[in-house]
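Quick log. Single chain, no ligands specified.
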Amino acid sequence: MEFEVRQTIAAPVDRVLATLVSPDFYAGLAGVPGVSAPTLRERHQDGDDVRLVLGFAFDGSLPSVARAVVDPEKLTWAIDLTVHLDRQGAEFDVVPDHYPDLMQGSGAQVFVDQGGSTERTTDGDLVVKVPFFGGKAEEAIVGGFRRYLLAEGDQVAARV
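-> predicted structure:
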């Protein structure tokens, strides 16, 4: 399932990016319906490239037929995100902690200066390969990603 999330964040690009790569930022984030609050698993910086590995868990309800195939407690994944401070962009991969053959995803983010605010566009693709409910799971997870990204942008603006 392809998705796009656009948001204007009420802060300059350089401050938005600095906040997004700050380890302290993730400690205070809350979860949103369907997706847990992220945990910062790793952070590495090499010049203008900052790699963050953020852990997430599905926090919604699954139909009984889906629970027969997957354990809801094992629907956890990492977002392996590399932010390019100099290019004002990022790429990410979705890396399942369990069931690696059932879910995969990737995407990119672009941050554009809007005269004191920042427009962040996230484009991605998520595939859940489970018979009968894969499409529903994709919708639920992408919906959670969308809510998370919008909440994250609001929290960046509040922190800056």
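The radius of gyration is 16 Å.
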